[in-house]
Amino acid sequence: MFDTHVNLHGEAFAEDLEEVLARARGAGVRRFLAICDRFDNFPSVYAIASANADMWCSVGTHPHHAKDFTHVTAQMMIEAARDPKVVAIGETGLDFHYGYSPEKEQVSSLLEHISAARDTGLPLILHTREADDLMADILEAEMAKGAIRPLLHCYTGGEGLAQRALKLGAYFSVSGILSFKSAKDVRAVMGDVPIERIILETDCPYLAPVPMRGRRNEPSYLVHVAEALAALKGMPVDEVKEITEANALTLFDKVGAA
């Protein structure tokens, strides 16, 4: 399996990161993608990726922090992405649920990330919450200017955004949310997304899947995400693992070329 979204550089794993990674490898996780949430955290994220032969990273700024990084340009991310360890742009996107950053700053930051993704050819990791229509409008308009490769990570959006994104060739990642009893809407939407467009993630240390809910999430729990997807699709777990790993390597092709 390939855990395509891990947040390992914070306090949650400060004391036992090596043990966490060992458990994940023992559970069958063969690759990890460490996510950059703030541009000033990139050195820390990159350092963890560089210390592990089976780990790569992204460069970007989460929409929550867009207001604090208005100075970050596409060119700055393009420069960082020249490194072989940097295989994606993001996490970026739009989140109007909490409103930690104003819409204007979120959109501006997203457009810089899109420009960087288009220039580098790297996948664009997108976070969307309560912004489905605007995200779809922006992706359609930007795709018309030149190809990008969107990944709608930890997808919890509606059917409308999912179908519009599918037409653009987007991929979707599923997390432990897929296993939550309350996530009927998520399962309904993902049930209509072809397995060939789905990859797995934990988004650790958040969103631990059933039966690990309430604990700190970690990459070794990725098997439970695979099990939830297998149940949804009516497929053997091993087949789901094989297909989603192949999908992830197709999307993050810089990893496959390493």
From TrEMBL:
Descriptive protein name: TatD family hydrolase
Keyword annotations of the record: Hydrolase, Metal-binding
Organism annotation: Hyphomonas polymorpha PS728
Pfam families for this protein: TatD_DNase
Assigned protein family: Belongs to the metallo-dependent hydrolases superfamily. TatD-type hydrolase family.
GO molecular function: DNA nuclease activity; hydrolase activity, acting on ester bonds; metal ion binding
Range of residues in the leader sequence: none
Entries under InterPro entries matching the protein: DNase_TatD-rel_CS (IPR018228), Metal_Hydrolase (IPR032466), TatD-like (IPR001130), TatD/YcfH-like (IPR015991)
Keyword Metal-binding attributed: yes
GO cellular component: cytosol
Record: residues binding a divalent metal cation 1: 5, 91, 203
Binding-site list for a divalent metal cation 2: 127, 153
